[in-house]
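Supplementary Text 2. Reproducibility record for the structural model of the 321-residue chain.

All settings were left at their defaults, and a single model was retained for analysis rather than an ensemble. We include the record here because the model underlies the residue-level annotations in Supplementary Table 4.
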Amino acid sequence: MTKYAIIVYVSLTALVLTTLFAPACGEAASFYSQLSVGKAVVHGNLAVYPVYLPGGGEKLGDVLTMAEAVEAGKFRITEREEGASVNALEVHNDTAKYVVLLAGEMVRGAKQDRIISFDVVVPPRGKVGVDAFCVEAGRWTEVSKHFKYEKEIAPASVRSAAQGKRDQNRVWAEVSKVNVERGAVTGTDALTASYDDAEFRADVKKYEKALKGLAKNKEVVGVIVVAEGKVKAGDVFANHDLFAAVWPRLLTSYAMDAALAGELGKVPPASAIASYLAQLEDAERERTYADELQKRSSLSAGEMAAYELEYKGKKVHVNVY
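Retained model, structure tokens:
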């Protein structure tokens, strides 16, 4: 074999190896490497950093949020027909589109209030089971045939207990902490008691007013939230439209995070938050679920924990703690 032939052979071999092995990490890098972080908007004891994606990200087309599906009147969540279970619910999607449910989204009623355990994509025109965690430890009596969706998302401490610890007792413990801190202790220890508090509702309105401009920028696809000098939570989506649709509900989560946090502390520069997000490219990944439609992964890098949902090979949502 000539020297020229050896070079060509080696080059082709490298190309084949790159093609074979690049998708596992290359696709993730192509999404995360495009993200940039803007200057924080500060309100109260929270600093909220907008996360940008050029062009506002890629459209998913056939996807609705739970709020959009519920408003269409063709989506409901019930206890399981074959027998109610604390950590399992049944989703009836009669729309013609896929519906994204986010970890921490709260539903009220039935035998006890729940939150969705993990991000999940529900297929159109069908009935599927989804994982859930109880956020009302003291009730197991039916108050309605199906759940009501009040457009609320649990605070970071409860969301991370559900996604990271995956333990019902830890979720109940975090719910109790929230209620005690908020002075909203009830007979059933329902997380919704803290959200129904008039003072908290007024706080949400203030955050909506202070942060309303974030969702107007068409390239914003998410936010990172800092309190007490460190990242409390963050949510980044595939595109601006999905972020804007979820933003009002995310505000309920962040406002509760603020209500539970101490002083704001030092506000890091946007470059520090960008470096924090950049860890996602090389983070350790564990595939926690996969089927022909979707994949879920948990990511870890240093003190960061993150959870990622992909749909038809595209990033849909990543939330970080």
